[in-house]
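Example for tutorial group B:
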């Protein structure tokens, strides 16, 4: 079990205790240990092997340490098995339904005997939930919507988890000498928000020997299929990995086929057919005659078009554009010159202004905006006006110490329920960079939400709308507003739209990036980092931007510090 697997066990125990209505402190202590394990950069297993004292980790006392050791040794723990007898995994999973907390799950379980998602959906359809105390027709409707949302993400993992899992597998593959080429395909290569399974293509000198060595990967739980051309497995935690073997001569066609998307492939196959050819995972064929297949580019060119970047392969007009030689030159991670949304210890971040600045310098950035929360976001200890003024002073002091980077004094000001901002305009005008975002009242109806956002956009003191859709992938639906009206207001008022790169947000989503681009709105790709390492999350934002057809010129934090200052008019000195 790796750190994340162990963290998941702690999370499940905490969930069960919460549903049971157990001691709050106990619940929190499990959550704390869970967070520690998520954040830990070294495998806890390794620490134990080396005889290090894991009770020195934050939130890990003797009893948690004992459980961690038990999990490392046996893959499970007594406490969990005991609790699961009365509270099976399916039941705790109900807490993943947007809008359902432990209390409601407990109520549904107790009163209606609901044990899993199917029970829940059935009860909702039969209008039985609305009769419960504290529920109503509206909450019942919300729960059904939540179930629908969860179904679209159920069994899928975030792109970050998928990248991490692939990197670990890739490390294992890199030690197999017979393997000549290894390459991720599927939705991972297309940088989708969520990933169903991993597709890994391999060229090897010896398939049998290779499969034997892949089998040694210690995270494989079960082999699902094995054949001449494939080896499918399930990893601990449930992620499936499809390994497929190909010859050099057909690798380009295979890569194209297994990168997908299916919709993109279908169009390409039709195109080949109109030319009297056949396209499959081995190549382009005219009868028995192979016309192309070794390289992806060669296959596309044969079909009369430019090579299409994987992120665009969704059958959203890329094939037409590629035929005309009109594809966009997509933005790249290397184009990013700075980060304009990070938090520090002043609110809910884990690193100081200095530490975040050092991390930004390490990444070669020319500027960094420190944007902590405002007072209304209580759980983050958001800043009031006085606190913010003091924080800004501290930020400027750090800025003064560094010649090689501009550290900007900013804020992520909360948009209140009625669209007013959480801090006065006078205070906000003093700052270099103001993000405004929603952190509450996500359920307003479309008209009210539209009015709320436009009011904030027209305040004349904000630069950027943070995580505009307010969605949490697999957790909370996007808020409802008139996207055209709100985007037009951004354009009219010189407000940029954020592409928040946090893997649980990825907000703006790709299709909205494209809409904004078409309207001529500039965007900002931001990490929303709460610790220095998380600055690297920006790559996921770039992935979304690429899926949204964005070029370097669509994104303002590709500008150098001087150009940025000219673009963001209210930037002080
Ligand atoms: P996922 O795994 O749900 O996140 O999404 P993908 O796109 O990775 O889908 P997956 O793993 O089922 O298949 C990988 C690629 O293989 C897919 O993008 C296109 C190709 N593929 C799979 N099945 C079919 C099929 O029935 N027809 C065609 N044309 N292509 C397919
Ligand atoms: Ca896949
Ligand atoms: Ca697959
Ligand atoms: Zn935020």
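The residue assignment follows.
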């Amino acid at each position: 079990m790796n750190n994340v697997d162990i963290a998941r066990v702690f999370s499940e125990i905490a969930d069960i205790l919460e549903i049971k209505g157990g001691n709050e402190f106990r619940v929190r202590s499990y959550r704390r240990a869970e967070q520690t394990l998520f954040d830990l950069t070294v495998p806890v297993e390794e620490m134990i092997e080396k005889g290090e004292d894991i009770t020195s980790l934050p939130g890990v006392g003797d009893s948690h340490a004992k459980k961690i050791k038990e999990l490392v040794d046996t893959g499970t723990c007594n406490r969990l098995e005991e609790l699961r007898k009365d509270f099976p995994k399916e039941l705790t999973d109900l807490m993943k339904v947007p809008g359902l907390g432990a209390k409601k799950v407990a109520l549904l379980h107790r009163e209606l005997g609901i044990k899993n998602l199917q029970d829940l959906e059935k009860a909702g359809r039969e209008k039985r939930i609305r009769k419960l105390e504290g529920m109503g027709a509206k909450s019942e409707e919300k729960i059904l919507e939540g179930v629908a949302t969860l179904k679209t993400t159920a069994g899928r993992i975030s792109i970050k988890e998928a990248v991490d899992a692939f990197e670990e597998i890739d490390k294992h593959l890199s030690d197999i000498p017979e393997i000549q080429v290894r390459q991720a395909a599927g939705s991972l290569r297309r940088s989708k928000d969520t990933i169903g399974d991993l597709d890994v293509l391999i060229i090897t000198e010896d398939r049998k020997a290779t499969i034997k060595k892949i089998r040694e990967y210690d995270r494989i739980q079960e082999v699902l299929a094995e054949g001449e051309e494939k080896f499918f497995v399930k990893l601990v935690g449930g992620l499936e990995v499809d390994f497929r073997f190909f010859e050099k001569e057909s690798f380009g066609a295979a890569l194209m086929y297994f990168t997908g998307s299916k919709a993109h492939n279908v169009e390409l196959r039709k195109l080949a057919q109109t030319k009297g050819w056949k396209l499959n995972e081995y190549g382009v064929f005219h009868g028995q005659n192979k016309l192309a297949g070794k390289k992806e580019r060669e296959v596309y060119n044969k079909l009369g078009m430019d090579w299409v970047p994987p992120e665009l392969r969704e059958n959203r007009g890329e094939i037409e554009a590629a035929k005309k030689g009109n594809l966009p030159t997509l933005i790249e991670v290397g184009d990013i010159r700075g980060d304009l949304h990070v938090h520090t210890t002043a609110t809910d971040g884990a690193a100081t202004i200095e530490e975040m600045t050092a991390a930004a310098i390490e990444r070669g950035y020319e500027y960094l905006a420190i944007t902590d929360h405002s007072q209304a976001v209580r759980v983050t200890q958001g800043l009031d006006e006085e606190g913010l003024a003091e924080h800004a002073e501290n930020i400027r002091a750090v800025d003064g110490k560094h010649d090689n980077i501009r550290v900007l004094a900013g804020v992520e000001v909360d948009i209140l329920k009625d669209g007013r901002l959480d801090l006065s305009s006078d205070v906000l005008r003093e700052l270099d960079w103001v993000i405004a975002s929603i952190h509450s009242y996500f359920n307003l109806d479309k008209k009210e939400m539209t009015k709320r956002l436009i009011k904030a956009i027209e305040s004349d003191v904000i630069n950027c709308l943070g995580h505009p859709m307010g969605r949490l992938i697999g957790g909370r639906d996007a808020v409802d507003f008139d996207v055209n009206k709100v985007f037009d207001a951004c354009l009219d008022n010189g407000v940029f739209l954020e592409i928040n790169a946090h893997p649980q947000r990825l907000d703006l989503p790709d299709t909205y990036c494209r809409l904004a681009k078409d309207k001529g709105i500039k965007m900002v790709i931001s990490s929303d980092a709460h610790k220095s390492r998380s600055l690297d999350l920006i790559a996921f934002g770039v992935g979304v931007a690429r899926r949204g057809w964005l070029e370097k010129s669509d994104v303002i934090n590709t500008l150098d510090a001087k150009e940025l200052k000219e673009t963001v008019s209210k930037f002080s000195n």
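Residues 186-187, 196-197, 199 surround calcium ion (ligand 2) (CB under 6 Å). Compare this with the pattern of hydrophobic and polar residues in the output above.
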